[in-house]
Structure to design on (122 residues):
């Protein structure tokens, strides 16, 4: 079923659901997590204090996908094309673990800038 969480990025507030995977549970158990926004195309990512507990297996994802990127120990929010995209779908820099999905209108994320505060919380 998953667990509901909130994402606050800059002045944008989103609702999201973390899935039932081991990686999603490890992230949920570490909440709240605060960080600084990094952007890569239409992706926001930020470092989190969670180690990889699952092998990454996905690169191309749907808009709204939440992922964990092991090389950067980063939580990722995909809301459109990235520099690695080969279609209209977001594509991670390298394989990620899908951990959940953001719901609602994600277009406001385009206004969030590098260095702004981001928080993942229950």
């Amino acid at each position: 079923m998953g667990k509901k969480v909130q994402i606050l990025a800059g002045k944008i507030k989103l609702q999201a659901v973390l899935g039932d995977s081991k990686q999603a549970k490890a992230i949920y158990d570490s909440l709240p997590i605060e960080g600084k926004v990094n952007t890569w195309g239409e992706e926001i990512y930020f470092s989190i204090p969670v180690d990889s507990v699952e092998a990454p297996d996905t690169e191309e994802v749907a808009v709204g996908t939440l992922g964990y990127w092991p090389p950067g120990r980063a939580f990722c929010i995909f809301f459109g094309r990235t520099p690695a995209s080969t279609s209209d779908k977001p594509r991670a820099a390298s394989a990620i673990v899908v951990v959940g999905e953001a719901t609602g209108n994600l277009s406001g994320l385009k206004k969030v800038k590098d260095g702004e505060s981001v928080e993942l919380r229950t």
Q: What stands out?
A: The chain has a mean pLDDT of 96. The chain has one domain: 3-109. Residues 3-109 form a domain with the Cyclophilin fold (CATH 2.40.100.20).
